[in-house]
Write a structure and sequence with these properties.
heterodimer; A: 426 residues; alpha+beta; Butyryl-Coa Dehydrogenase, subunit A, domain 1; Butyryl-CoA Dehydrogenase, subunit A, domain 2; Butyryl-CoA Dehydrogenase, subunit A, domain 3; four-stranded mixed beta sheet; 14 helices; 8 strands; 12% strand; globular; B: 395 residues; 3 domains; two-stranded antiparallel sheet; 11 helices
């Protein structure tokens, strides 16, 4: 469905003129990101106000359906607007911007009821709702279908009890997209349901986690008999796994878009490591130069893989969700390797810094790099999908897919115990 | 056996070229012929190169006015499609060096040089190859052979290594250095002082030689293009063409070795299951698949970049370095999946492992290309000693 170029150009120009009248130009020193150090009440109000301006002007949800407050135009229009908006200070919601717009709403649009979408999507577009993923749990990460947070029927209500974790940015979210177990007497994939959970309500505690690199992006939530209604259900009760699969695809694709580093041709390749080598006085060292080249090559590989997977996804016809595992695995293996290169170039002096100052970027990168190997699907999960879905290798034998989940949990606790002692206490 | 993963669909015209090349390789030089040749049987005959030329193997990089031309709009992209199929079935013959010489003639050749040599090259009746690598396996322009002015023309002296199919070549493209700068020459094989010595190599599928020039005097009209900056730029372009096409041949060989390993993992039973159902083996193959698909995307990016002249030098080296390392790693991973059977002469794996390993070394090995990349970062040349012990180790 190609748009005539002239139409798009006119759209872009009109958007640019509109933006120039209403928004400030983008400043390079504007602190973007969602660390609580930057995410203040004031910041929150300002970003939401900017989003409201865009919404009122008809520039929010450009490619989303009209009936839910979007503009019903094409992805090409969205891209044209993004190009026009590059020079302006549009709303920056940090990590929640990506989860809300890139993961949660696209998943809702695929599975939620029209009534649900009418309630929530226009509010997202107006900057009134930011969404977080209530996904992983202390006892379920890679095995997402093994979540144990339970939603129990109680008359016409649902009662939510349990805990979620690694929910990035939950401390400034309005709603969580929450996966809960609604049936324990069926196999694990068949007793799951998705709920919209308002974050600010009785029974919910949100606790930011202090991470190893001294940042705080992840949170843990505790649900203590939180009340939900049928209106909060997304998709069908007990059929949440269908929704989860959509969400996982969105997650991998958003990841591929946001991981790109500027790489080839005229820009400054591996600029961070080049300046690190200079600071360390090691720019002449052939071994250091070799390490920088290795890092630059990893950057190019990730960028080319991401671009390729997006091209193939846009063209259709292949299993885009599985192919998205390639750039994810490249990032999951390449990012820690690259961070280690930074540590190697910096040497001992690179591990220290003036008293009272913040650690240099290389140190935080190193401590945080494994996030790419774990978050949004571990390297091992990517390898499973690639080997099974793409290469067609046989699945591992499964111990949990065809018996009730309650039984799975009980048997797992007895794993490895001699036959005669199973089912007994102790 | 072939299933698309991250390869882009080809245009209809390019797919016809690919399919014709596949049929040709299966008919002309199936793997059994390679095995026979490795055991002392007949090597390829002249007819192979000529029949390959009929498919357009050597015309894509030639100018249209000389009878060349491309299907896709980029001769290098066309030639890369051929190269992948060549690698898949370990085809012999001077495909990469012939295309390098064609590209050099297209860019630098005088009308007389083009008229004398290009038609024969495009028809496969003339064979030409490129003598550029130094004895230490370096590919810096002019490192292997030196040139000087001499009465009646130019004197050439030095030894070039890893010259593919030199023993069947009618012409040599010689990239030579001097304190005055780089010069390139197109030299007929039958010159006094030019000595070709075939060498044994790890690669059973192609033949390599050492070419020694002892005071070879060539006439003025052997000079290709202009000496100095122009010749250096031409040699740089030739290196990029050689890198892209070698990488494309490597991709084809990687694909085939990987497909064989994948099939083996499905078929081989141990502990009551196909070994490909064990996570240790599946994860090894997934990582190997990532190496292959990453290599493929870099090959495409480099072919595009060299064609457009946009970031060509950088991406050619990125691709050559990455694919060289990845291909060898792929060969090693597949070997581990094959286990015992991979040690046998009868299994095809070693033929691929040998070729992949040689490809990694040709036209600059990974470490050499990474050294080359340092200049894109604005870093000082590590080969120039600054007097306090830094950086004497450039290769």
């Amino acid at each position: 469905m190609a748009q005539p170029t002239a139409d798009l150009e006119e759209y872009r120009d009109r958007a640019r003129a509109w933006l120039a009248e209403r928004l400030e130009p983008r400043r390079l020193d504007d602190p973007a990101g969602a660390d609580p150090a930057h995410w203040t009440q004031e910041r929150d109000q300002r970003e939401r106000a900017i989003q409201r301006i865009l919404f009122d002007g008809g520039y929010a949800g450009i490619a989303w359906p009209k009936e839910y407050g979007g503009q019903g135009l094409t992805a090409a229009h969205q891209q044209a607007f993004d190009e026009a908006a590059r020079g302006f200070r549009v709303a920056e919601f940090g990590i929640l911007g990506r989860t809300t717009w890139g993961i949660c709403v696209p998943t809702m649009l695929a599975h939620a009821s029209p009534a649900f979408l009418t309630r929530h999507v226009p509010r997202v577009l107006a900057g009134e709702e930011l969404w977080v993923q209530f996904f992983s749990e202390p006892e379920a990460g890679s095995d997402l279908a093994g979540v144990r947070t339970r939603a129990t029927r109680d008359g016409d209500r649902w009662i939510l009890r349990g805990s979620k974790v690694w929910s990035s940015g939950a401390y400034y979210a309005d709603y969580g997209l929450c996966l809960a177990r609604t049936n324990w007497d069926v196999p694990k994939h068949r007793g799951l349901t998705w709920f919209a959970v308002k974050v600010d309500q009785p029974g919910i505690e949100v606790k930011p986690l202090r991470q190893l690199n001294d940042r705080s992006e992840f949170c843990q939530e505790f649900f203590d008999d939180v009340e939900l209604t049928d209106d909060d259900v997304i998709g069908e009760v007990d059929h949440g796994w269908t929704v989860a699969r959509t969400m996982l695809v969105m997650e991998r694709q958003v990841g591929a878009r946001t991981r790109m580093r500027p790489v080839a041709g005229g820009r400054r390749p591996a600029a961070d490591l080049v300046s690190l080598a200079r600071q360390a006085g090691r720019e002449h060292d052939p071994r250091v130069q070799d390490l920088i080249a290795r890092a630059h090559i990893l950057d190019v590989v990730q960028a080319e893989l991401s671009t390729r997977v997006q091209e193939l996804a846009a063209a259709g016809g292949r299993d885009a969700a599985s192919l998205a595992c390639y750039p994810k695995l490249a990032a999951g293996t390449g990012t820690p390797a690259r961070a280690l290169i930074g540590i190697e170039i910096g040497g001992g002096p690179g591990l220290t810094w003036p008293g009272g100052a913040s650690p240099p970027a290389g140190v935080s990168d190193y401590l945080g790099a494994r996030a790419q190997s774990i978050a949004g699907g571990t390297n091992e999960m990517m390898r499973n999908v690639i080997s099974e879905r793409v290469l067609g290798l046989p699945r591992e034998p499964s111990y949990d897919t065809d018996r009730p989940f309650s039984e799975v949990v009980r048997r797992a606790a007895e794993w490895g115990r001699p036959e005669g002692t199973r089912g007994k206490a102790g | 056996m072939r299933c698309p993963i991250l390869d882009l669909p080809l245009s209809d015209d390019l797919d016809i070229l690919r399919a014709a090349t596949l049929r040709f390789t299966q008919r002309e030089w199936p793997i059994e012929k390679l095995r026979a040749a490795a055991d002392g049987g007949p090597a390829i005959e002249a007819g192979y190169v000529q029949r390959a030329a009929e498919l357009g193997w050597f015309a894509a990089l030639a100018p249209e006015e000389d009878g060349g031309g491309s299907i896709s709009g980029s001769g290098l992209v066309d030639a890369a499609v051929v190269a992948v199929e060549r690698g898949r079935s370990l085809q012999p013959g001077p495909f990469v060096p012939m295309n390098v010489v064609v590209a050099a003639l297209a860019r630098e050749g005088s009308p007389a040089q083009r008229a004398a040599v290009l038609p024969g090259l495009m028809a496969g009746t003339t064979v030409a190859t490129w003598a550029a690598a130094g004895s230490a396996g370096t590919w810096g322009a002019g490192e292997a052979i030196r040139w000087a002015r001499a009465p009646g023309g130019y004197a050439l002296a030095g030894t070039a290594c890893l010259v593919q199919d030199a023993d069947r070549a009618d012409y040599f493209l010689i990239t030579a250095g001097a304190s005055d700068g780089i010069s390139q020459f197109l030299v007929p094989a039958q010159m006094p002082g030019l000595c070709v010595r075939p060498v044994g190599s790890i690669d059973l599928s192609r033949s390599f030689c050492e070419v020694q020039l002892t005071d070879v005097i060539v006439p003025d009209d052997a000079l290709l293009g202009q000496p100095g900056t122009a010749a250096a730029a031409a040699a740089e372009h030739e290196l990029q063409v050689a890198c892209v096409l070698t990488v494309a041949e490597t991709i084809g060989a990687m694909e085939q070795d990987f497909q064989l390993a994948l099939q083996y993992a499905r078929d081989r039973i141990a502990f009551g299951r196909p070994i490909g159902s064990f996570q240790a083996v599946k994860h090894l193959l997934a990582d190997t698949s990532l190496l292959l698909e990453s290599s493929r995307t870099l090959c495409d990016a480099a072919a595009r970049a060299v064609s457009n002249g946009d970031a060509g030098p950088e991406l050619a080296s990125v691709a050559k370095a990455y694919v060289g390392d990845s291909a060898i790693q792929l060969g090693q991973n597949c070997f581990q999946v094959f286990s015992g059977i991979g040690f046998t002469w009868e299994h095809d794996h070693h033929l691929y492992l040998r070729r992949l390993t040689m490809d990694a070394a040709l036209y600059g090995d990974p470490a050499w290309h990474r050294t080359r990349l340092a200049r894109f970062y604005g870093l000082p040349d590590a080969s120039i000693s600054d007097g306090d012990g830094h950086g004497a180790a450039n290769r």
